[in-house]
Amino acid sequence: MKKRLLAYLQQIDELLKHPPIAVNYDDEVKKHLVQIGFFMHERLIHLIVTVLFALLAVGVALFAVASPGIPIFLLFGALLVLLIPYIMHYYLLENGVQKMYEQYDELLARSEEQKKTEAAGELQ
Fold first, then answer.
1. pLDDT digit string (tens) for 21-66?
2. Where are the domains of the chain?
3. HSE of 85 in the Cβ direction (CA atoms, 13 Å)?
4. Angle formed by the axes of helices 70-123 and 2-17, to 10°?
5. Are 114 and 19 in contact (CB under 8 A)?
C-alpha cells in the first residue's frame, strides 16, 4: 500500500506540474475522488487496527505491573514491536490522504478554470 500511495501521489504531482495538452480536469477530479475513497477506507482500517493494538499493549502493560513475569514482558515487547510499524504506516496514510485533499483542490481549481476558458472560447 505504501508504494501504491507514494506512486499515485507522485503521478498526480507530475500531472499538476507538467499537464498534458489534452488533459480533461473534470475526468481527473472524478478519478482522484475514487482514489481518495480507497485510501480513506484503508486509513480507517489501519486506524482501527492501530488503536486495538495500542489498547492491547496498554492492557498487557497494566497486567505486567500487577503480575510481573518474563512471559508477560515478552508479550508486551512483541506488541510494541508490532505497534510501531502500525503507527508509522497510519502516519503515512494520514499524511498521504491530506496531500490528496490538497491535490484535489488544485485539480478542482484547474477544472473550473478550464470550464471558464472553454465557455469564453464558445462565446467568441
1. 888 889 999 999 999 999 999 999 999 999 999 999 999 999 999 9
2. 34-109
3. 5
4. 20
5. no
